[in-house]
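Minimal example, chain plus beta-D-galactopyranuronic acid.
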Amino acid sequence: MKRRDVIRMGLAGAAVGAVGVGLGARVFAQQKMVLKATDVHPLGYPTVEAVVRMGKKLEAATNGRLSIQMYPSMQLGGEKEMIEQAQVGALAYARISVGPMGPIVPELNVFNLPFMFRDDAHMEKVIDGAIGDEMLKKLSDHPTANLIGLCWMNAGTRNVYNSKKPIEKVADLKGLKIRMMGNPVFVDTMNALGGNGVSMGFDQLINAMQTGVVDGAENNYPTYASGQHFRYAKYYSLTGHLMIPEILVFSKKIWTSLPAGDQALIAKLAKEAQQEQRKLWYEREKTALEEMKKAGTVITQVTNKKEFQDAVKPVWDKYGAQHAALIKRIQDVK
Ligand code: GTR
């Protein structure tokens, strides 16, 4: 068998698998390459749909040479696993929350502080502007993260839900075991609010709610509705404690094997996806809320938001102090 045929065979199975063999980008430029992408959410979810649409554009722009194969619904594991797979080049695109990226790139943790953004418009101005670009670059330039930050996506506001009771005030959280994303800032946030924050991957959450390992979790409407979490935790309270953008990352290992033209195309399409996902997001927030109501979710307003904001002050002291200048810049975005 000729060397070229061997390469072809490798590429047919998993394009990304061939990256490690140390061949020049010139050889690959001619070859078909299927870029694997993954997301914890199901097909049709705004983040998934945006990446699927991006794949179609990529395919059209390269006459089918580059395409994206989407693995939705945690088929490749939770977000921690997705990050690891992108880092080693086992997949190309991972659409993850900024949540689990905070421990890897410290500056990103500023987006993970409770009550950091005033509202969606504020968050969008930050991610669409200079700070958003700088943060993506920080990630891409990070010496050991091994990821390229491509773009941001909307993820609305996260609220607490549980199987026991409505949360109206901070004291109502006392004793409740609430699943938080794997990042100490979130566990500390829940603990500061008087609950018991339990760090856990998204892929373990349903089982944990079913078995009572946790009493609930916290998330935006679309995640709660798409994951049918109302089946396990019907009290959804508008605590609004976190507003965390999503991030689309790309494996640096695969990125560096691509010719500059392909890199530029992938980067451009990602920027377009950032805006496209936003439209899908607001539509899905509305339908998710309807699904929640139909499913009998008990939606509760908190009586005094400031009480919640005051309670998380220790989290700001612990995680925000070293990023005071960046925080000020974010707050100054009007
Ligand atoms: C969702 C987000 C996911 C994941 C999940 C979680 O809002 O879209 O990427 O981070 O939250 O709580 O783990």
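Residues 260-294 form the longest helix (35 residues). Residues 1-22 have pLDDT under 50 and may be disordered.
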